[in-house]
Recover the amino acids of this structure.
């Protein structure tokens, strides 16, 4: 996973990089990789919700949050993220056999990510599908 994180860093940049795997039986997303184990420890969970963000990424679409207004709107832990200087986010789904297995989450300073990055990030993400199967 460290090699994948390095590739995402070189291509897109990030201050925080995490991978969340879907655990439908438990109704959660479970963290399987993080560049910040203090803030985002391995094994940490977030509930699978029925909100706008969850519907979008749950359908396998990209999510792009450009600034603190987007972070405030979509993330429960928005205050902590903003204090950490994480005001921009790019999420892309990892899909295996037409099923969303999880998400790649890139966070950085405001306005860091652009819509033009989403498709390439998605292609990079698909390369991680085997790792999600083993996690």
């Amino acid at each position: 996973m460290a090699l994948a994180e390095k590739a995402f860093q070189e291509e897109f940049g990030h201050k925080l990089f995490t991978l969340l795997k879907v655990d439908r039986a438990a109704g959660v997303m479970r963290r399987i990789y993080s560049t910040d184990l203090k803030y985002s420890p391995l094994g940490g969970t977030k509930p699978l919700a029925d909100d706008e963000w969850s519907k979008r990424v749950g359908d396998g679409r990209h999510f792009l949050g450009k600034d603190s207004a987007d972070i405030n709107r979509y993330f429960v832990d928005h205050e902590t993220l903003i204090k950490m200087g994480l005001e921009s986010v790019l999420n892309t789904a990892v899909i295996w056999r037409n099923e969303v297995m999880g998400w790649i989450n890139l966070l950085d300073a405001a306005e860091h990510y652009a819509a033009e990055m989403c498709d390439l990030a998605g292609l990079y993400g698909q390369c991680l599908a085997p790792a999600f199967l083993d996690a």
User: Anything to note?
Assistant: The first strand starts at residue 16 and ends at 23.
